[in-house]
Design brief:
The protein has about 90 residues and is mainly α. Helices cover about 55% and strands about 0% of the residues. It has a domain at about 30-85.
């Protein structure tokens, strides 16, 4: 019934994106910002950790929101760094 809707085209693998520029920007962040981003997003082939788990290790408070705050600040600073880098090198 649906066989005429499918095209039999060869599947070509996509090129693996180069994130070197992103890793370089992360490495410029303060160490505690790096730690949270690397663990939460599984950078450098690390296992992914939840912000809640990290927060509980950082603080024994019931709310456990420390990692959430650090991630927010880290992403804000990372965004600023990348935006400034874009302004400095618009042709790259």
């Amino acid at each position: 019934m649906y066989s005429n809707t499918l095209k039999k085209e060869p599947v070509t693998p996509l090129e693996k994106p180069d994130y070197a520029w992103l890793y370089q920007a992360v490495e410029q962040l303060p160490r505690h910002f790096q730690d949270v981003l690397i663990k939460h997003y599984g950078l450098y082939n690390r296992p992914v950790e939840s912000l809640y788990e990290m927060s509980r290790r950082m603080s024994k408070s019931a709310k456990g929101s420390m990692a959430y705050l650090i991630e927010y600040r880290a992403l804000k600073l990372l965004r600023k760094q990348l935006t400034e880098e874009e302004k400095d090198h618009p042709d790259d």
